[in-house]
Design brief:
The chain is of the alpha/beta class. The protein is built from 27 helices and 31 strands.
Length: 879
């Protein structure tokens, strides 16, 4: 089949993906092979493919495809997360567009609409992952709210409650007034913002002056129940125990002393609003203060506030400020920059709120999860994230798992309709809860209708922390679960190390007594070339699918991986995808070149020797690169592995090897060399396949006719073999020599058509190697290599290691310019040699430095002395 002039991914990529999927290559069933399982970090059902997904899933696919080539039984489980807050917001928006309010629906009606929305939009991102080449086992696609996963969530909730590790209590929480639900600490994003600091006077009761406080939230003054000062602050000692009047509210509240107060902030006096600040709540608990919650769940002013009822908190803040100013109690205002917490999902400012919620006792789960990482049972890549993990685990707080939503797994807690919330019955089914209620109350006549279920759902993360267990139905303890668990590696962003990674490890040890994965590879953040995080608001996040349209999936995978250091942030630039597309074209054209050569069974002996040397060199180079790539896979340095292969294929294979064996115009290539070249091309396809699966599969089939099922994706990774270092060293000298000749040609504008002579010693090991002189002459466009005579006066010297070569160039030389240039080089080399000798004479450096570093310095000194001698010799000849 004749290859087109350019590689066209739009034709090739969908064709091969459909073939792989139809052939069942992605599906896994347990067998005698070693299992290699990965669970996808489930993207939200509300999501579409973005750059973070592209990076994460490209890495997972690379690992999965490499493991298949290594003969392992790969099971990459895909799925989506139900994303309670985000999805409920989408459904509410959809209903609003239909003229329906959520409040007008029953829970069951709302859930029908939610499932309808999920069926329509929830699988979009999984379809888009196919465009990227993701080789997931689509037959195993899971959803955090499907029947199997929901059953597991309820089972675990009930179990932890019975163990005393889930409890219900009143605490200060992070409240999202737009979504009207509690958030975990990890779902609150803090950024420095400018706000207004209001200095407000509170009149001392009895007409004895006033005390001034500073607050950014004057609307919460209506919920104040005390003013606190530091017990050692001399400014306020006389006021402790007295009362002040709350501005606008007109209530009398005490001035109390508490060492929590920062004497340096503001005025040193702190308004205490226990319902609206966690620290105020703690102070209020210590001093027995009442709690007045002046805000409704939606962030509007509550009736108990007595003023601005129903107004949004931001509007009420303005009106409260105006009212305080009218009363003559506003001393001043100033701009104050501080950390403001916003909801990760809705971006509204989070409201601290006292609320009754469900919690997991995390301290009881943390120890085995922490130990497993610190003792290396679970390995982190990069290792630096161990310290981040340890700090969080050692300072862990209980996890608030209830959410005031309808979309999600409903909390399996039941209450008696007439009994309030004092008695709670937690059970997997309503029938089990009824039996518990009958037993506790001693009333066997209780019926199911007398039980009401908790209105809240569990946090989405309470579903996904069971992911590695639940996707294999691990709670059934089946044979398939035992085969695939623990999974091999988790690939995820470091930003959810607490939200997800730590919790999965906890659940693994709590329920299986075993780690959920062997390795965790943390990717960096995708940023633009200005180091800004990619976001829709900044407009700096490219359309992922358009990138695939423009550059092909292989080009995009190359672009995103080439700039992704292990664990470091990725500075993305579309030019990298263009580089990936150009790489595809380079390989494509290389095959077009090879397939255009005729083949013969006979050839000139000297050419055969040269080709044999070229093949031996490339075979050794391939062995070294295979070893290097394998090591980098072990270390999860995938970007380094890809860029090493890029250089190997582009420079070593295309620019050097193919030029070495390329027959003269109109001449054929010997069959032995052609067979080796096609075999080398096959190896390149296999090694590159995990990174660039589509073009490698196409090239694989263009190389020769294949049987059914004989695809690159299902081939075997080339085995490790002995590296012929002597061949590599010799050919490296050859390339250095050829490069030196080419540089001198360019420097003096001597065209390749002009044949020139190289002079060398007859005892030169490189010249003595069979086939080398033919290759040097061919690559450097030489007339001949003379070993039986001295170089003419004025010849240019090339130094390769310890060996000297002289090139007779047809040029008129400017001796003074050359002398000046050589003198400058001589001065530099003398300084270099001197500084290196000084470093190596330092006993502290030699004894403390890594032996490899010392060896490199000694090699640098050796090379420097050699070059110095060469330059001195060149100067002597000029003089």
């Amino acid at each position: 089949m004749e290859l087109s002039k350019r590689y066209d991914p739009k034709d090739i990529e969908p064709r091969w993906y459909a073939h792989w999927e139809q052939a069942g290559y992605f599906h896994s069933v347990p067998d005698e092979r070693e299992a290699y399982s990965i669970v996808i970090p489930p993207p939200n059902v509300t999501g579409v493919l973005h750059m973070g997904h592209m990076l994460n899933n490209s890495i997972q696919d690379i690992l999965a495809r490499k493991a298949r080539l290594d003969g392992k039984n790969v099971c990459w489980v895909p799925g989506t997360d139900h994303a309670s807050i985000a999805t409920e917001a989408k459904v509410v928006q959809m209903l609003r567009e239909k003229g329906i309010k959520k409040s007008d629906l029953t829970r069951e009606q709302f859930m029908d609409y939610a499932w309808e929305w999920r069926e329509k939009y929830g699988g979009i991102i999984l379809q888009q992952l196919r465009r990227l080449g993701a080789s997931c086992d689509w037959e195993r696609t899971a959803f955090t709210m499907d029947e199997s996963r929901s059953t597991a969530v309820i089972k675990v909730f009930v179990d932890l409650h019975r163990k005393g590790k889930i409890y219900r209590g009143h605490r200060m929480v992070n409240w999202d007034p737009q979504a009207k639900t509690v958030l975990s600490n990890e779902e609150v994003i803090y950024n420095d913002e400018d706000t207004t600091l209001h200095y407000v006077r509170y009149p001392v009761e009895g007409g004895h002056g006033h005390i001034t406080i500073a607050t950014t939230r004057p609307e919460t003054i209506l919920g104040d129940t005390a003013i606190a000062v530091h017990p050692d602050d001399p400014r306020y000692l006389a006021l402790i125990g007295k009362n002040v009047i709350v501005p606008v509210a007109g209530r009398s509240i005490p001035i109390i002393a508490d060492s929590y107060v920062d004497r340096e902030f503001g005025t040193g006096a702190l308004k205490i609003t226990p319902a609206h600040d966690p620290n105020d709540f703690e102070i209020g608990q210590r001093h027995g203060l009442p709690v007045i919650d002046v805000l409704n769940a939606d962030g509007t002013m509550a009736e108990i506030a007595g003023h601005f009822i129903g107004e949004d908190r931001d509007v009420a803040r303005k009106h409260m400020t105006q009212k305080i100013e009218e009363l003559g109690l506003l001393e001043k205002t100033e701009i104050y920059r501080h950390a403001v917490g916003r909801s990760e999902r809705t971006n509204v400012i989070v409201e601290p709120r006292l609320s009754l919620q469900w919690y997991v006792d995390m301290k009881s789960l943390a120890k085995p999860a922490l130990d497993s990482v610190l003792n290396g049972e679970i390995q982190f890549f990069p290792e630096k994230y161990q310290n981040v993990y340890r700090h969080w685990m050692e300072n862990i707080r209980d996890w608030c798992i209830s959410r005031q939503l309808w979309w999600g797994q409903r909390i399996p807690a039941y209450y008696l309709s007439e009994g309030g919330d004092a008695d709670v019955f937690v059970a997997e089914t309503r029938e089990e809860a009824l039996a518990l209620a009958q037993e506790k109350t001693g009333n066997s006549l209780l019926i199911i209708d007398e039980l009401r279920q908790d209105e809240d759902v569990v946090d989405t993360w309470f579903s996904s922390w069971l992911w590695p267990i639940a996707v294999f139905d691990g709670f059934d303890n089946n044979a398939e679960f035992k085969y695939y668990y623990p999974t091999k590696v988790l690939v995820t962003g470091w930003d959810i190390i607490f939200l997800w990674v730590a919790r999965m490890i906890m659940s693994g040890y709590e329920y299986i007594g075993q780690r959920p994965f062997d390795h965790v590879y943390f990717t960096g953040m995708v940023r633009d070339k200005q180091r800004r995080k990619m976001s829709k608001s900044l407009g700096n996040s490219p359309d992922a699918l358009k990138l695939i349209d423009d550059f092909g999936a292989d080009g995009v995978r190359f672009g995103i991986l080439s700039s992704s250091p292990a664990g470091g942030d990725l500075l993305f630039d579309e030019k990298l995808c263009e580089q990936g597309r150009n790489f595809c074209n380079k390989i494509w054209n290389a095959l077009r070149l090879v397939k255009g050569w005729e083949v013969t069974d006979t050839t000139d002996a000297k050419i055969s020797e040269a080709n044999s040397l070229a093949c031996a060199w490339f075979d050794a180079l391939l062995a070294r690169n295979l070893q290097d790539v394998s090591e980098k896979f072990t270390q999860y340095r995938l970007s380094d592995a890809l860029m090493g292969l890029y250089s190997f294929v582009w420079n070593d294979f295309c620019s050097w090897f193919l030029e070495m064996i390329k027959p003269a115009y109109g001449q054929p290539l010997d069959r032995k060399t052609m067979d080796f070249t096609l075999h080398a091309f096959e190896s390149i396809c296999i090694v590159l396949h995990p990174f660039m699966p589509f073009i490698t599969e196409e090239l694989w089939h263009q190389l020769k006719e294949r049987k059914e099922g004989e695809d690159c994706m299902m081939s075997k990774y080339p085995p490790a073999k002995h590296i012929e270092q002597q061949v590599l060293d010799s050919m490296e000298d050859l390339r250095t020599l050829v490069t030196g000749i080419r540089e001198l040609r360019n420097e003096h504008n001597i065209p390749n058509s002009k044949q020139i002579t190289l002079y060398a010693s007859a005892s030169n090991p490189l010249i003595e190697r069979r086939g080398s002189t033919v290759l040097i002459c061919k690559l450097a466009q030489l007339d001949k290599i003379a070993t039986d005579s001295d170089a003419p006066d004025g010849s240019m010297q090339i130094l390769v290691g310890q060996e000297k070569y002289f090139l007779d160039l047809p040029i008129v030389r400017n001796i003074e310019e050359e002398r000046e240039k050589l003198n400058k080089e001589l001065e530099y080399l003398r300084g270099f040699v001197s500084s290196t000798e000084k470093k190596l004479s330092n006993e502290r450096f030699v004894s403390n430095a890594n032996p490899e570093v010392v060896a490199r310095e000694r090699k640098k000194l050796e090379d420097g002395i050699s070059k110095l001698a060469s330059v001195e010799g060149a100067l002597a000849r000029l003089n």
